[in-house]
Amino acid sequence: MVQAASVFLIVLGISAAAISADEYTSEACDCVRTGKVVLALSHPVARLDRFESKTGNQAALNWVPTADERKWVYLVIHHSATNSGSVDAIHSEHRKRKDSLGNPWLGIGYHFVIGNGSGMEDGEVEATFRWKNQIHGAHSGSAVHNANGIGICLIGNFQDKQPTSKQLKAVTNLVAQLSKRYQIPARLVIGHNTVKPTACPGRHFPLQDVIRDSVTDGKLNS
Ligand SMILES: [Zn+2]
């Protein structure tokens, strides 16, 4: 597995040494870290059909990864806890961070960011390099969830206010697409606060409504 992962990264032009195992336990939000390190449990799988291209969903076409897809298990929802933000701004900020071993992060810890009109368009969905290259996230503080979970961050502080209607529409559509593609059931579409004690994604984020309107596995919360 490790050897295969190294080859995978070298193909991407990323030095395997540049990715420390410790980044698996990193997170984008300000929370206490867990100490346990588990190497990648997911792995590249054969490339599947293009993202929902048959449905004519043009937005979804932008989410087609450029690398072989991993077998994703979780969808982990976050808020940025800021009033504004963008992929570029978060990427710059996260590149300044170092893990507990002193190694710099690769960059933005999430796989997708959804804008709120301040820094990005309201409801705009942008995939990050982690999604395009199908590599682990650095968003949950949990090794298992970083290795196997797709990290989605909505710009905003939902402890203070609700997401915009365009953001809710966008995240519902994104969760619908991803949960369907990777056969992720409702119970594995989770907020960051399910992984560990944190306010993220905020008390005003209507996660159950998003799940109800997006995941159709018939086993809501089972
Ligand atoms: Zn979070």
Q: Assign the CATH architecture.
A: 3-Layer(aba) Sandwich
How many distinct helices?
Answer: 8
Side by side, the strands of the main sheet go 3-2-4-1-5
Mean pLDDT: 78
Major sheet: 5 strands, mixed
Summarize the helices and strands and which ones pair or pack.
Layout: H1 2-11, H2 58-61, E1 74-79, H3 87-95, E2 112-114, E3 125-127, H4 129-132, H5 143-148, E4 149-154, H6 165-181, E5 189-191, H7 192-195, H8 207-214
Parallel strand pairs: 1-4, 1-5, 2-4
Antiparallel strand pairs: 2-3
Helix pairs in contact: 6-8
The site of zinc ion has 4 residues, from loops.
Summarize the model shown.
By secondary structure, this protein is α/β, with parallel strands linked by helices. Helix content is 28%, strand content 9%.
Task: Report on this structure.
- This protein has 222 residues and is an alpha/beta fold.
- The chain has one domain (2-214): Lysozyme-like (3-Layer(aba) Sandwich).
- It has helices spanning 2-11, 58-61, 87-95, 129-132, 143-148, 165-181, 192-195, 207-214, and strands at 74-79, 112-114, 125-127, 149-154, 189-191.
- Strands 3-2-4-1-5 form a 5-stranded mixed beta sheet.
- α6 (165-181) crosses α8 (207-214).
- The protein is globular, with a radius of gyration of 16 Å.
- The protein binds zinc ion (ZN).
- Zinc ion binds at residues 29, 78, 192, 200.
Features:
222 residues, alpha/beta, Lysozyme-like, five-stranded mixed β-sheet, 8 helices, 5 strands, disordered N terminus, disordered C terminus, binds zinc ion
